[in-house]
Design brief:
- The protein is mainly β.
- The termini are far apart.
- Strands 1, 2, 3, 4, 5, 6, 7, 8 and 9 form a 9-stranded antiparallel β-sheet that branches.
- The chain contains 2 helices and 9 strands, in the order H-E-H-E-E-E-E-E-E-E-E.
- Helices cover about 10% and strands about 60% of the residues.
Length: about 270
């Protein structure tokens, strides 16, 4: 028969899989720069308390919130704690000739922290790692035909998510150590469409090249926290983390299709 602790560890291990669907497909409105690389990076600013301090909290223990910035601080988890955060963004995108407003709200993170015993705390969580969300239309010329116009449409959606399992352990009087194992996964879907109109032929067909990239890999991180009491009301806290380098695995699929260009708004 399983003990309560074994059931708890099993639940902690399974939780990221149950939560994974909630974080996929999240965007932050049209962001042209998310076309580059893995998309717009979603910085790790920790939980609610750390977000309120601009992401500061690598060496700031707290018993009321989940601090994912430094896994070693999970030692300070006195009770089971669940947190969910959300991001909202409103922005004005513009170039030299036009501008428009866009924005949306997305899931920021999910986190569950549990005290295993007096010297050991653990947590599981799910958070976005990067976001791709853009739609850009442009026009250009065609070499060899001064009367032809090339209509181009670039689009992208998707992003990467990170599901993690972290621990923090009190090993000495003033020293805590920690670590986390994360599964990085997600899909980026990018399209590049072109339609040509000449003086005699309308641009009624859009040739679209589609590239779908699927990412999956593991990330490992180590952490330390040192806390020394200087006086009755003053403590010195030092903390640090190190993320080990990894070569993320990716699979690529390319397709080409034709669409009706008349439905496009340029």
């Amino acid at each position: 028969m399983l003990t309560d602790k074994k059931l708890l560890l099993a639940a902690l291990t399974a939780a990221p899989l149950l939560l994974a669907g909630s974080a996929l497909g999240q965007g932050l409105g049209n962001s042209p720069y998310s076309r580059i690389g893995l998309g717009d990076n979603v910085g790790n600013l920790g939980g609610v308390r750390q977000l309120g301090m601009g992401g500061v909290g690598l060496a700031a223990p707290n018993t009321g919130n989940v601090n994912e910035l430094n896994p070693a601080l999970l030692y300070y988890t006195p009770r089971t704690t669940f947190e969910a955060g959300f991001n909202a963004q409103y922005k004005n995108v513009r170039n030299a000739s036009e501008s428009y407003r866009t924005g949306s709200g997305t899931l920021a993170y999910l986190a569950l922290a549990v005290p295993i015993n007096k010297r050991w705390g653990a947590a599981v969580g799910l958070k976005p790692y990067s976001v791709v969300d853009y739609q850009v239309n442009s026009t250009g010329t065609v070499n060899g035909d001064p009367y032809a116009v090339a209509y181009k449409q670039y689009g992208g959606t998707g992003g990467l998510s990170e599901a993690y399992f972290a621990h923090g352990i009190h090993v000495l009087r003033d020293l805590n150590i920690g670590g986390s194992a994360s599964y990085l996964f997600g899909t980026l879907d990018q399209t590049n469409g072109t339609a040509i109109a000449t003086s005699t032929v309308a641009a009624n067909q859009l040739v679209v090249e589609r590239e779908q990239l699927r990412y999956a890999d593991f990330l490992l991180r180590g952490a330390l926290h040192y806390r020394h009491k200087l006086s009755k009301d003053l403590n010195m806290n030092l903390g640090g983390t190190y993320t080990f380098q990894t070569n993320t695995k990716v699979s690529r699929q390319r397709t080409q299709e034709q669409r009706d260009a008349l439905v496009l708004v340029w």
